[in-house]
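Usage

Read records sequentially. Each one opens with the input sequence:
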Amino acid sequence: MPASMSDLAQQFEEPEPVGVVNESGREPLPWTSIFLMVTAAIICWGLSLLLPDVPPIAKAASLATWLNFGERILRGVLQAVGMLALAIAMSALFPQVGFVIERMVLRSRRSLFLTVTAIFSIVSSGLFNYIILDHMPHIQDEIAMAFQAKILASGRFYEATPSLPEFFDCEFIVADGPRWYGKYFIGQSLPLVPGVWLNAPWLVHPLLAGVAIWLTFLLGKNLFNEKVARVAVVLMAISPFRVSLFAMMLAHPVPLVMLAVFALATVKVVLDPGRTGWALVAGLAIGFAGNIRPLTALAMGAVIGLAALIAMPWRRFRWQTAAAFVFGAGVFAVVLFGYNKMLTGDPLLTPFNKWSQGDRLGFGPDIGLEYWRDEDKGHTLKKALFKDLYFNFDVLGQNLTGWGQVTLVLLFWPVVRSRWPKRTWVLAAAIGSLVFVHIFHVSNGVLAGQARYWSESMPMMVLLVAIGLASVRALVPHVCRAVGLYPAVRTGRSACWLAAGLLTVWSIKIAHIPLIEQCKEQFWGQGPTIRELARRQKLDNALVFIESGHYSRHFRGGLIDMYPCGFMLNDPDLEGPVVYARDLGDDRNVELMRQYPGRSFYRVDPSEGADVQIVPISGPTRTSKTRG
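and closes with the structure output:
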């Protein structure tokens, strides 16, 4: 290991001197020093209370909003410094408390450590999904991906379009002539297929959280050392961002895992260019990621690939290594273009663009879905830089570690000052690539406590925060010496671990509970009410009409579209025990009823809230009349 890397690694393992006295030769006065630290903690917390803790009621692109954000970052720093000062005082009296945390993180058996953190991550995201999110998709993106997963699980790429498709019109579900399919790439739905077979698609992403923990450890260990890797693993395990991300059925967890595999495999190839197996793994991983979020894969792949080309020991490079990578990536290029051809008839036309030509990268007044309100459509550089970046940095600082906005300081500090400048810059560039390319995207992507368009770089983020914490760890003994707390290294080391523990407990109040409260609400009106009512009434062989607004109108001030909470319960062939359709009025409903002879018919209005009921209605023999 180069000397510069070894120096920084030692920040986690610096030996502690004993029996140290101050320069005057007299024993320090510990109670005076402890009093100074407690006083510093009180002052820091008192000053933090003078600063705002919530965003202002102002436009996000305004100067007032960014000034407020700066004040909230300062508030977070003051609170963290106050917590650290208190931890120093406590460690002077009870150093063993901090060392207990240190032993669990750094000294425990590797297999036990990784098993515990992986299981914790799986269980936390799983419980969040099952209890808080009702083990169901909530937003239209998830619903479209789950719909396509059901089709793939049946062995088909698309379902036959219903003869009356207007009754089953759901946002992001494409009715393309005889073909009916979800608009997203195949890689977003394919990993959900085993979950569909087991009737538990909600479980797939929580399981991947454990894989992400393992990959973060391997990436950190190969780039830096095991202790930095362990700290990063703990940060990911406790992250509210990670809990929420891997609890939902959106597309981000799988490319996060695939791009971490790609980064790890690339590091392995740079260290030994003859490892064609790792080159094949790198090609397959980046190719699979490109079949899920191609822009993300292109951005991060370009940065990591360029860094690999610069660092590659070319004298030992073999052409077979390049061939293995190209073959792996080529396999999924064939999948990408073949899937496009199968669904849209054109290998260069994606289902995503088949749904909308306006949802594309760039700037201009026509960017966005065609049915959006005029004030919501359009994208500008000003909006991207001053509004979208603000929203993402705000939620990232709050939820990456749960420690508050001080996380942003820890994240950026290694870029400014690091003993590993080249490697930290590569990590920062990988993160920055996602920040940059999504400047050109009309949506900011913030949802459920997630800066989700940047989420695939989460392993890199937590590794940078871990290195930032190493810098704090090196600084604290100097503070202990300055105030006369000896042995300084021992006290400072214990204090850092104790402060991290205190901040993690504090995160329950400032990050985890607010995230739970936010996610308990029904996103876009999609909740479990209809599912639970149907179970309670034991509906079978039924056709249920759902009164609802329409997605093309609720953006323009109409009623919210609540039909997706029923559509998600349908089998794609529309032959399940209960079929849910839009309520288009009595006269039109009769047309659909005639296609389901022998079924019982019902109507439900989810907008009735707590009083909602699934009500029986007469079949087509009844004289129908149009609803007013």
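Summary fields computed downstream for this record:
- Residues 112-455 form one domain.
- Confidence is low (pLDDT under 50) at residues 1-20, 22-26, 622-628.
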